[in-house]
């Protein structure tokens, strides 16, 4: 191993994990797995009929993880699946799932909006802009790393 993380990168990674931990605690408080919470969150945000593919793409989660959680949520009466075009599977709330999500996940949207509202608009834009830039550069470096690994 050539080098270790510098202080700023170590702090950034820690902050990212802290954000993830907040959502993990929220999911636990609802007796949901992280992926089940995320599926209900997306379905409430995107609306009935969103596809599993939409959720995978939006939150960069594997198809296997989403599929397994969707089956569990369906078995527990939160949602139903319907076939769409090709191999697409579309998700729809059951009455129970919609009521649960509106009562428990809807307030998470409010919390998130309130968090951004407590920041200056310029701070929000700077946070988004720098995070986008970090991801773009990280992806470029990842591609280079993968190319170098293939040469070994």
Give an overview in words.
This protein has 152 residues and is mainly alpha-helical. Helices cover 72% and strands 7% of the residues. It is built from 7 helices and 2 strands. The protein has helices spanning 7-29, 34-46, 52-59, 63-75, 95-104, 106-117, 121-151; strands at residues 79-83, 89-93. It has a two-stranded antiparallel sheet. A hairpin with a 5-residue loop joins strand 1 and strand 2 (89-93). Helix 1 packs across helix 2 (34-46) and helix 3 (52-59) crosses helix 4. The chain is globular. The mean pLDDT is 92.
Number of DSSP E strands = 2
- SSE pattern, N- to C-terminal: HHHHEEHHH
Main sheet overview: 2 strands, antiparallel
Major sheet: arrangement of strands: 1-2
Radius of gyration: 19 Å
Beta content comes to 5-15%
Category from helices, strands and their pairing: mainly alpha
**Poorly predicted residue ranges:** none
| Structure annotation, total helices | 7
The helix fraction, in percent, is over 70%
Characterize the overall form.
globular
Quote the distance from N terminus to C terminus. Answer: 16 Å
Mean pLDDT: 92
Key features of this structure:
mainly alpha, two-stranded antiparallel ribbon, 7 helices, 152 residues
Give a summary of the structure in a few sentences.
By secondary structure, this protein is mainly alpha-helical.
């Amino acid at each position: 191993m050539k080098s270790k993380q510098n202080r700023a990168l170590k702090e950034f990674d820690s902050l990212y994990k802290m954000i993830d931990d907040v959502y993990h605690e929220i999911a636990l408080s609802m007796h949901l797995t992280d992926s089940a919470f995320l599926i209900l969150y997306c379905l409430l945000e995107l609306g009935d009929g969103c596809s599993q593919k939409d959720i995978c793409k939006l939150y960069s989660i594997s198809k296997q993880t989403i599929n397994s959680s969707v089956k569990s949520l369906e078995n527990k009466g939160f949602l139903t699946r319907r076939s769409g075009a090709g191999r697409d599977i579309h998700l729809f709330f059951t009455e129970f799932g919609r009521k649960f999500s509106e009562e428990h996940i809807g307030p998470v949207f409010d919390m998130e909006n309130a968090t951004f509202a407590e920041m200056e608009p310029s701070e929000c834009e700077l946070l988004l802009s720098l995070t986008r830039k970090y991801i773009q550069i990280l992806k470029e470096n990842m591609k280079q790393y993968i190319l170098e690994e293939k040469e070994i």
